[in-house]
Design brief:
Elements: H1 4-12, E1 29-34, H2 38-47, E2 51-53, E3 56-61, H3 76-84, E4 89-94, H4 110-137, H5 150-164, H6 176-183, E5 195-200, H7 203-208, H8 213-223, E6 228-232, H9 234-258, H10 266-276, E7 279-285, E8 289-296, H11 301-308, H12 310-314, E9 316-322, H13 324-330, H14 338-343, E10 347-349, E11 360-365
Parallel strand pairs: 2-8, 4-5, 5-6
Antiparallel strand pairs: 1-3, 7-8, 9-10, 9-11
Helix pairs in contact: 4-5, 5-6
Length: 368
């Protein structure tokens, strides 16, 4: 929990309050942060457009969680309803000692904190699932009780059993039909959301790349369904970002060089969050604008066109495109597709084309 709002400020370059006491964040803050990508930077350098729009990740800073939240402790149900609304979770835990930084439980133990948060999320999901099951399986007035499929019953029983043992729903393991049938009943489970575990270390331990807590946290994550664990240090990241604000890229590099070449992990945190949501992006590039467009991995060309405007999807004719790597290799340093067309690298695709990450696309459409 400690470092959560400070990390949010760093990711989004905002000034959200980051005071040192529990529940500083009451209403969730939201902001978009750009997804770092050298391909986007290269296209911008080539086209030099007045408008440059990178892929974006919407980040929400939600109040910290304590034991008993599922029963209303702390900010309790407000927190849990906020987290229910997001698509994925950065789970930030403290793994450093400091007399100046308060811990709600008066001692530092990130494994205990992980257990506490998982337990509260499972309890919230259990209450939600039981309510949804009752509503779904109860006959409406004047109607017969709905017929329940075997897949639904199997999924229901597994989810309830896991949540009653404080195990996340995703650990139950489901078939495609179980997911489809039960999602109709309970579409907003918290413990099926992807999680990235962020371990906030002291500056000293982060630079040394060691902490007594890291192996214990790794063991806990592995035994609780696995996931990505990223050690970082708000203390160090603030120093690096402060240097950049004061003196630009050169000052930032001086700080990094003075600390054994330890780079910021903020780009990795953003990229991992983006990937966990199963997102990719394609580019549109021209003299007026270079932009990266968020789409889900596996999207067909018309769906990708719809990311730009619904008319593009409704009136989709075709997509004219090339792969980023092909463009960089064959464009000859020119902001033009001419060389790629002559080499057959710039092609037309129809409505069944699955868009690839980094495709550079121009859509043709007609809604008349």
């Amino acid at each position: 929990n400690v470092g959560k709002s400070s990390l949010f400020n760093l990711l989004t370059e905002q000034g959200a309050a980051a005071e040192n006491f529990p529940f500083c964040t009451i209403d969730p803050n939201e902001a978009q942060c750009g997804v770092p990508d050298q391909r986007f930077k290269w296209l911008c350098d080539l086209y030099k457009p007045p408008s440059k729009v990178p892929a974006k990740l919407l980040v929400t800073d939600i109040a910290g969680l304590i034991k008993g939240a599922s029963e209303g402790a702390g900010l309790g149900n407000a927190f849990l309803s906020h987290i229910q609304a997001v698509d994925g979770i950065y789970h930030c835990v403290r793994a450093f000692e400091s007399d100046e930084v308060i811990h709600v439980d008066d001692s530092v133990d990130p494994v205990r904190d992980l257990e506490t948060i998982q337990s509260e999320l499972c309890k919230k999901d259990l209450a939600y699932v039981k309510k949804q099951i009752t509503a779904h399986e109860t006959a409406k007035q004047g109607q017969k009780a709905p017929k329940l499929s075997e897949s639904y019953i199997s999924a229901r029983d597994k989810i309830v059993a896991h949540l009653e043992e404080d195990k996340p729903a995703f650990m139950a393991g489901f078939t495609d039909s179980e997911i489809a049938d039960f999602k109709v009943c309970a579409p907003a489970l918290i413990t099926t959301k992807p999680i990235i575990y962020l371990v906030n270390l002291s500056k000293k331990n982060f630079i040394a790349k060691k902490s007594k807590w890291l192996p214990r946290i790794a063991d806990w994550v592995t035994s609780h369904g696995g996931g990505t664990v990223i050690p970082f240090s708000v203390e160090y990241e603030e120093e690096v970002f402060g240097a950049f604000q004061a003196g630009g890229a050169a000052a930032k590099q001086e700080v990094i060089a003075a600390h054994q070449g330890t780079k910021s992990v903020l780009p990795r945190i953003i990229k991992c969050g983006y990937k966990e949501l199963n997102l990719i992006y394609f580019f549109t590039a021209g003299e007026k604008e270079v932009r990266a467009w968020n789409i889900y991995n596996g999207s067909l060309a018309p769906q990708a066109a719809g990311a730009i405007h619904s008319d593009f999807e409704r009136g989709f004719i075709k997509a004219e495109l090339c792969a980023y790597d092909d463009f960089k290799e064959h464009c000859g340093g020119k902001a033009s597709m001419a060389n790629l067309k002559s080499l057959g690298k710039y092609r037309q695709e129809g409505k069944n084309y699955v868009v690839k990450d980094g495709d550079i696309i121009e859509f043709k459409f007609n809604v008349s």
